[in-house]
Design a protein that fits this description.
mainly alpha
Length: about 110
Amino acid sequence: MRKNNTHRAGTPRALIGFTPALCRAPSPLRPPRAGWWGLARHFHYLPELAAAFFWCLPAGGGRALPFFYFFPFLTLLLLDRAFRDDARCAAKYGAAWVQYCKAVPYRMIPYVF
């Protein structure tokens, strides 16, 4: 319920002692700029990639076959999804998404991509 209060209310309520930063736009829909989403727009894909890499390590044993799950499959899948999510959010949020992209310029890896 706090999520709904944060996104739909005129002024966001404090969560655990701090008020979350939101993009200001005339639309009632505003993407958040606090927490992980303040570092990169799709930062939540990075821990998933790290988990996949570490799941492949024990099965690797010097062979490349187990790592096909990590690199060609999951990495390319999540990169494509990040671009598609950006396009969908641009259509959904409009001017607020442009403002959010200026405030958070990185897609997945802060200061890299």
